[in-house]
Amino acid sequence: MKNRIGLIVGCILIMIWCLLPVAWIISLSFKSESAITNGSPGFFPSDGGGAGWANYQAVWDNEQFRRAIFNSIGISLIATLLSVIVATLAAYAIARLEFRGKKAVLTIALAIAMFPVVSLVGPLFDMWRAIGLYDTWPGLIIPYMSFTLPLAIWTLSAFFREIPWEMEQAAQVDGATSWQAFRKVIVPLAAPGVFTAAILTFFFAWNDFVFGISLTSTENARPIPASLSFFVGSDPFNRPASLLAAGAVIATVPIVVIVLIFQRKIVAGLTSGAVKG
Amino acid sequence: MSAVTAPAPGKQAGKPVVSDRARAETRLGQRLVAPAIVLMLLVTAFPMLRALYLSTFDYALTAPDDRDFVGLSNYLTALTDGLFWRTTLITVLYMVVTVAIELVIGFAFAMVMHRVIFARGVIRTSILIPYGIITVVSGFAWQFAFSFQNGFINGWLPFVGDDFNWFGQTGSAVTAIMVSEIWKTTPFMSLLLLAGLAQVSEDMIEAAKVDGATWTQRLVKVILPNMRAAIMVAVLFRALDAYRIFDNIFVMTAGAVKTESISFLTYRQTIEQFQLGMGSALSVLLFLSVLVVAFLIVKLFRVDLAQARQES
User: Fold this and answer.
1) B236 Cβ contact list (under 8 Å, min separation 6)
2) Could you tell me which residues come within 8 angstroms of residue A207 by beta carbon, excluding any fewer than 6 positions away?
3) Measured between alpha carbons, how far is B281 from B309 in angstroms, rounded to an integer?
4) Which pLDDT score, from 0 to 100, does residue A244 have?
5) Which residue of A42, A162, B193, B267 has the fewest CB atoms within a 10 Å radius of its CB?
């Protein structure tokens, strides 16, 4: 009984931990700008300090912001797609084939996962300007791909190792061609792992900030996190807190929805890639 | 990457002569990993070498024609400058404090999640929410929460005045940055620890219980030793991640009141002040210091990482 109470308390603490800042930023996004500039401390909007949906409307009508959301969606999706294709090939080879250099591949991937991103922005900034990739979509897609590959390769190869590959041969013995055997047996087994890797990759790309602020200069390619950080309202010395909060909520909603839908896969992917013993 | 040749003869036991099949397998394997390797090296190894090259010049983008070879003088300047050491020290502080706190809280969360039977899905889903939120957004949320003009923290904490400015001096600003960092990444830590916890055999814990071991004894003598690999991976990953701390500082203080980390200093030199030569030297130093941190942690835990994660 004592144990049970402890667990319930623990669960409540976890929930508060996870949800409090989220509730706070949502609450902030509904405060009116005048209430904020006059100083409106407290968790919930004070009487008469609410703004309804006005902040959301203002953010949505902001051309710069809409453009940033569009950039983020496009760049993240393309980077995810390409990265997962390349990682699947590599992970298949690592899980399935014996070849020289396998250890080297895993070591390189691990080293890159630990690489300090900031130490690359200087040289990349210089190179991208020289070859015309600065402030373009490919200029962000390429770094995102190479930085998501390690995670995708580790997750996928851990996943592929669990697949009973003998089933492919069994299907062939039963009269399937090798393509049929691959498509009907292996693809359905591998699909969940590939999907998990895709979600994690998408997270990374959507979350990135360093490349986003360093390798872009205009609305051409600037993704949403960078755009939020450069967002200044009418008064450049006072950040428009409520507008920013509304922008932050809009930028967060897609990710949270993905989390809610795919939580099982994400947990499996995060842990299988990282701890497998 | 090794050259595309057949494996050395006699490498596989019992197969002194390499069969055509093995050779074909090697070729296929290397072809399949080639795109990934090329992409990863294109964006890391090549720019890193270029940084090494650029770091020997006095080179500012504002005056691209005045590019002078200066040898190691950029490094000398950096290493003899108090600013470099101050940012390194503060970065180590961020790393040590956040990882230590996250390890404790993350472990407590993992214990609760491991034992809880009811509402498992809800708890696991909510723990992923901080993980999914953009770091920049969490930085804003906490910055506004700590703000004395429109935040709630001053009102909730009994021991600070309502007009206390958290971002006015180093200590409190660093605390605020750490809170945001810890909030955002503890869930990741606790998920990794939860996976480690799941691998500790229940039978062993039961056996210890029957033998009369107290809760603390079971924790210290049975559970923790059996999770060593998981703890090591979690600490290593989080520590290296924390050492690169940048987003939260950028959003919350923009490096003011001496909260600047080494990543931030590097960024500021390169992108904001266009000092590519000096910035490259800092990039190289940042890279080397990450290597040192990784080396120290791996030594500390004495675990072969590739083995812990791969074929054990």
Assistant:
1) B294, B297, B298, B301, B305
2) A225, B134, B135
3) 33
4) 86
5) A162
